[in-house]
Design goal:
- By secondary structure, this protein is an alpha/beta fold.
- It is 31% helix and 15% strand.
- It contains nine helices and eleven strands.
- Strands 1-5-4-7-3-9-8 form a seven-stranded mixed β-sheet, with helices on both faces. A two-stranded antiparallel ribbon has the order 2-6. Strands 10-11 form a two-stranded antiparallel sheet.
- α3 crosses α6 and α8 crosses α9.
- The protein starts with 6 loop residues before the first strand and ends in a 9-residue tail after the last helix.
């Protein structure tokens, strides 16, 4: 079993139990209770007096640290049985309730969960909602289930912010896993050496299209764009407005729209009144 290629910082902790006795079929997301860096979290887990560690950490900027090799059991969830089969992830968060995480950390967490599932041959990440149902469930060979620290100790971990998003995380990661990764390098653009005149498929056309008005935005992103326009977060270019008073000239790519929707679901725009 390999470690995640997303890792940018490795500080192996002495606080661990060595090789797992159970195959990986769980992911347990924790909150750090502090907006820390990957290096700072690694330094904490490097102290043998702390008797704590995790396999990975996602810091405030979305960077990934590795502290216990993925094929080894960390000391993270107050449950040896859970830690023996779970990849544990500490996530940088506020030090006060609801222990919110920054958008970059949330995005990094999604990427890490997707990577863990892919490398372990899983095509579905499941959030079953309660302790009894989850612990009684026997995952299929292509399934990974999510557990939380509060099920095994009198703690609020992972905090209400991440707790409320367990289902959202599972759904988004599963959606990504249903999209096969292409091993082929990207084709050269038209006009570049080796490039041909574009003749896009419908899917490719969606990826290069720019959305300039709310009317052009696909249904899956329309609610987010409407609220961001109403809150003044998106203003468009040129000062023109459509018949409903919303700005035009938004110039949103499909990738930009996807990112706005993910950040919106993570609550990144709540402070803006959106």
């Amino acid at each position: 079993m390999s470690n995640s290629p997303l890792t940018t910082c490795t500080v192996i902790s002495p606080n661990q139990s060595g090789k797992r006795l159970h195959a990986v079929d769980r992911i347990t997301i924790h909150c750090v209770v502090g907006q820390c860096t990957a290096e700072a979290l690694g330094a904490l887990f490097a102290d043998p007096k702390r008797f704590a560690s995790s396999n990975y950490g996602v810091d405030k900027d979305g960077r990934v640290g590795c502290y216990v090799d993925e094929d080894c059991r960390s000391w993270c969830s107050s449950s040896a049985a859970n830690d023996d089969r779970a990849v544990t992830i500490e996530t940088a968060s506020d030090s006060f309730a609801p222990y919110a995480v920054r958008p970059a950390a949330y995005a990094g967490l999604l990427d890490l969960c997707e990577d863990i599932c892919r490398r372990n041959g899983k095509t579905r990440l499941l959030w079953l909602g309660d302790k009894e149902t989850t612990l009684a469930y026997e995952p299929g060979p292509d399934e990974m289930v999510m557990t939380v620290h509060r099920w095994f100790a009198n703690k609020s971990c992972p905090g209400e912010y991440l707790m409320a998003r367990q289902g959202e995380i599972a759904a988004e990661v599963t959606r990504r896993l249903e999209t096969p990764q292409s091993a082929a390098p990207p084709a050269p653009l038209a006009g570049e050496p080796g490039g041909a005149s574009p003749s896009p498929t419908d899917e490719e056309e969606d990826d290069v299209k720019r959305y300039n008005s709310i009317e052009e935005v696909p249904e899956w992103g329309k609610e987010t764009v409407v609220r961001l326009c109403a809150a003044g977060v998106l203003k468009g270019c040129g000062g023109e407005r459509d018949g409903d008073g919303y700005p035009t000239g938004l110039d949103l790519s499909a990738d930009a729209l996807r990112l706005l929707v993910i950040l919106d679901r993570a609550g990144a725009f709540a402070a803006c009144g959106a």
